[in-house]
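Narrative of accomplishments. A recurring question from our advisory board has been how the design workflow behaves on a single, concrete structure rather than in aggregate. To address it, we present the structure tokens for one chain from the evaluation set, followed by the sequence designed for it. No filtering or post-editing was applied between the two.
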């Protein structure tokens, strides 16, 4: 079983070091403590939380989803799909939040999206608007 230092695990999962620490404290990710008291993250935990089926090497050329430069890749579960004409409205549940995406019917069917399927929401935005709540 391969164990990763926190910074290595954070890089592989594309999250920050403080996020990994918070996940450990909150029990979201399992860690193993070394005799010196340092946390190490098992490979299976990195795979589980990153959605990557198998991480074979720390130094490999990215492919597929890894090759996408954006950091806003959110793994969730499809909670519903609604079709209307040529479009599909896909709702993805992400840790208490829902993201809705409108994609083509054909793309939805090709991806096999239906309730219960795990899927990534890839977010690309050139602008973020904020309003006081």
């Amino acid at each position: 079983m391969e164990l990763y230092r926190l910074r290595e695990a954070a890089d592989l999962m594309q999250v920050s070091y403080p996020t990994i620490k918070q996940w450990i404290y909150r029990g979201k990710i399992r860690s193993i403590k070394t005799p010196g008291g340092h946390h190490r993250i098992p490979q299976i935990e990195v795979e589980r939380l990153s959605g990557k089926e198998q991480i074979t090497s720390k130094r490999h050329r990215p492919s597929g989803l890894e090759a996408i430069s954006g950091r806003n890749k959110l793994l969730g579960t499809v909670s519903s799909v609604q079709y209307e004409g040529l479009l599909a409205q896909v709702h993805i549940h992400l840790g208490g939040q829902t993201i809705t995406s409108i994609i083509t019917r054909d793309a939805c069917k090709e991806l096999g999206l239906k309730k219960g399927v795990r899927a990534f929401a890839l977010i690309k935005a050139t602008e973020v608007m904020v309003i006081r709540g």
